[in-house]
Amino acid sequence: MRVLVGVKRVVDYAIKVRVNPDRTSGVVLDNVKMSMNPFCEIAVEEAVRLKEAKKASEVVALSVGPKQCTETLRTALAMGCDRAVHILTDLRGDYMQLQPLATAELFRKVVEKENPDLVLVGKQGIDSDAGQLGPMLAGMLGWPQVTFAAKLDTSDDGGITVERETDSGTETVKAGLPAVVTCDLRLNEPRYAKLPNIMKAKKKKVDTMDAEEMGVDLKPRNEILEVYEPPPRKEGIVVESVDELVDKLRNEANVIQ
Predict the structure, then answer these.
(1) What Å distances lie between residue 44 and 27, 120, 233, 251, CA to CA?
(2) Distance CA 113, CA 85 (A)
(3) Whether residue 76 has pLDDT greater than 80
């Protein structure tokens, strides 16, 4: 089984983002620490675990973005991926310029070339929080999809069994291959790449493709009119009793009747 895993380069999750003063060009990316999207890390870890369990023969990492995405792909290679594909574009990938529909089309082109049995992606990118790439890609390919995976196993009939998160708990879904799976937080805990593997990753193959030459319309379908920071939260107060709390919730906050 060949596994293709999506890897996105985003602003590091520990960084406090700043909105550009013009309020139309998104958050500031200049001189900001970037790293692999946390949900993509989980997808990479799961793909590598499948290979370590002898259930996958090859794991290919795929990223769309500027030349710096090669660094993110090297991280995936150091975690255990066999090789990588980089679709090169200078368009921002945080929904401001490159949006999920175009990214899904680019992924589809690579899927048709690589012919994987399973595509693993994070359930969402922490920059746009769209959560649309996996479902869109599955729709374009006509493949089954399982979203918000919390546990993934291969089944004896050549398919997969996935426990997925829902608003009311979890449910178990069986799907045939090929399929698209989006990975949620509870699926696993990603490993840290060890120094020897980081050195080995530098020698692994990374194929580069130009997004402009892949026959995909990269223009955004939705226009971002304004980006602004949420207003600061008001300072809280300390109440002396439950009765005082109820009174304030009823008469000041108007959240209970």
Answers:
(1) 27, 8, 37, 51
(2) 11
(3) yes
Please give the Cα distance from 158 to 84 (Å, whole number).
Answer: 25
Task: Give CA separation, 145 vs 50, 119, 217, 241, 251, in Å.
Answer: 18, 9, 24, 51, 48
Residues in the chain: 257
Strands 145-154 and 160-166: antiparallel
> pTM value?
0.88
Asked whether the beta carbons of 154 and 37 are under 8 A apart, the reply is no
Residue pair 151/163 in contact (Cβ under 8 Å)? The answer is yes
Q: Which two tokens stand for residue 163?
A: 């426990």
Comparing CA positions, the residue from 3, 5, 40 lying closest to residue 118 is 3
Cα–Cα dist 3/76, whole Å? 13
Omega prior to 231 cis, within 30 of 0: no
The CA distance from 229 to 17, in Å, is 9
Q: What is the pLDDT of residue 230?
A: 85
For the CA atoms of 236, 238, 239, 245, the dihedral, rounded to the nearest 10 degrees, stands at 30
Cβ proximity of 92 and 99 under 8 Å? no
What pLDDT sits at residue 257? Answer: 75
Q: pLDDT digit string (tens) for 79-109?
A: 999 999 999 999 999 999 999 999 999 999 9
